[in-house]
TrEMBL record:
Cofactor: NAD(+)
Keyword NAD set for record: yes
Start and end residues of each NAD-dependent epimerase/dehydratase domain: 3-249
Listed name of the protein: UDP-glucose 4-epimerase
Keyword field contains Metal-binding: no
Keywords: Carbohydrate metabolism, Isomerase, NAD
InterPro entries in alphabetical order: Epimerase_deHydtase, NAD(P)-bd_dom_sf, UDP_G4E
NCBIfam families, A to Z: galE
Record family assignment: Belongs to the NAD(P)-dependent epimerase/dehydratase family.
Gene giving rise to this polypeptide: galE
Pathway given in the UniProt record: Carbohydrate metabolism; galactose metabolism
Length: 324
C-alpha cells in the first residue's frame, strides 16, 4: 500500500515524499501546482495533477492506487493574505479537507496525518507553547487550520478515522539542493532575494525583551519535520496509540538578529540589517515545546541554525545557476 501526499509537489510536501521513499514506503502525489513544482516530484512517483476540491478526481485516484493513508499537506498557507481572501482560504483549507475526508470514507481509507499550523494559537501569552495552550487564531488561515483539526476529530467519532495533526511555526532549510522554499512571504526567501537584488534585509524592532533585542521565534528544519510525518503515518499504520495533535517545536527558538548574522556568515555577503520600528502585535518570544513529538514521532532538532541557513542558501544558489 502507498500513502497519498496531498500538496506533494510543494516545499514541505516534497520533503515528506522523499522521507517516505527513504523508508521504502510507496507514495502517490496529488497537487494542483498553484504553489508547487512538478519537478519536485521524483521520477517514478505517480503524480496526479489537480485539486482536492475535485471529488471525482480524488475518487479516481483512490480507485487507481492501493492507498492505505493520506498525509494532507495541501492548503493555502498565507496568513496575511488570508485576511483579504477569507472565502478563498476557507474553500482551499476547509471545503477541500471535507471533500478529501468524504472520499476517504467512501474508499475505506481511515488513516490521515494533517499538516496543521501553530497559527491556531494566535499570539499565545506564554513563552513556551504546548498542545494545551489555548487556541485563539487571528487570521482566516489559522481558523481554517483549526477547523481542519475539528473535521478530523469529528470524523474520528463518526467514522473511526485514525488521525493526528502536526502544528509548527517556521519551516526553513532544504534537504536537497533541488528542493527549495519558493514562498514570497517566508523569511529566508525574502532575505535571500533582497541580498540578490542588492537590497539590505530589514529587522522590525530591536527593543524586545530578548538577549539581542530582536524577536525570538521557532525555526525548524524541513527534513526534521518530514521525518515526523512519516513516523506519524507509521504509528497509524501499526495501530499504536497516538495523540490527536503534536507541536513540532524547538523548545528554544532563535532570534531574527541571530538569523541575520548567520545569513551573512554563510553567504559571505557582509551586511547590517536595516532597523525598522516594531510591527504592532509582534510578541517578544514564541517558542513551542516538542516533548510529545519527541516521545512518539522521532522528533528531534537534528539541524543547527547554520545547517538551516546553509542548506536553504545552497538550494537557492542551485536554482539560480545557469542550468538550475
Amino acid at each position: 500500500m502507498a500513502w497519498l501526499v496531498t500538496g506533494g509537489a510543494g516545499y514541505i510536501g516534497a520533503h515528506v515524499v522523499r522521507a517516505f521513499l527513504a523508508e521504502g514506503i510507496d507514495v502517490v502525489v496529488i497537487d494542483d501546482l498553484s504553489s508547487g513544482h512538478a519537478e519536485f516530484v521524483p521520477d517514478g512517483v505517480p503524480f496526479v495533477r489537480g485539486s482536492i476540491l475535485d471529488a471525482g478526481l480524488l475518487r479516481r485516484t483512490f480507485a487507481e492506487h492501493d492507498l492505505g493513508g493520506v498525509v494532507h499537506v495541501a492548503g493555502y498557507k498565507y496568513a496575511g493574505v488570508s485576511v483579504r481572501r477569507p472565502l478563498h482560504t476557507y474553500e482551499q483549507n476547509v471545503t477541500a479537507t471535507a471533500t478529501l475526508l468524504g472520499v476517504m470514507e467512501e474508499a475505506g481509507v481511515n488513516r490521515i496525518v494533517f499538516s496543521s499550523s501553530a497559527a491556531v494559537y494566535g499570539t499565545p501569552h506564554t513563552d513556551l507553547v504546548t498542545e494545551a495552550t489555548p487556541k485563539n487564531p487571528e487570521s482566516p488561515y489559522g481558523e481554517s487550520k483549526l477547523i481542519g483539526e475539528w473535521l478530523l476529530r469529528d470524523q474520528g467519532v463518526a467514522a473511526g478515522l485514525r488521525h493526528t495533526s502536526l502544528r509548527y511555526f517556521n519551516v526553513v532549510g532544504s534537504g536537497a539542493t533541488d528542493l527549495r522554499d519558493t514562498s514570497p512571504h517566508n523569511l529566508f526567501p525574502l532575505v535571500f532575494d533582497a541580498l540578490a537584488a542588492g537590497r539590505t534585509p530589514r529587522i522590525f524592532g530591536d527593543d524586545y525583551a530578548t538577549p539581542d533585542g530582536t524577536c525570538v521565534r521557532d525555526y525548524i528544519h524541513v527534513s526534521d519535520l518530514a521525518i515526523s510525518h512519516v513516523a506519524a503515518a507509521g504509528r497509524l499504520d501499526a495501530g499504536e496509540p497516538i495523540e490527536p495533535v503534536y507541536n513540532l517545536g524547538s523548545g528554544e527558538g532563535v532570534s531574527v538578529g541571530e538569523i541575520m548574522t548567520t545569513v551573512a556568515a554563510v553567504t559571505g555577503i557582509d551586511f547590517t540589517p536595516t532597523r525598522e520600528p516594531r510591527r504592532p502585535g509582534d510578541p517578544d518570544r514564541i517558542v513551542a515545546s516538542g516533548e510529545l513529538a519527541a516521545r512518539d514521532l522521532r522528533w528531534s532538532m537534528r539541524h543547527s541554525l547554520d545547517d538551516m541557513v546553509r542548506s536553504a542558501w545552497e538550494s537557492q544558489q542551485a536554482a539560480s545557476a545557469p542550468n538550475g
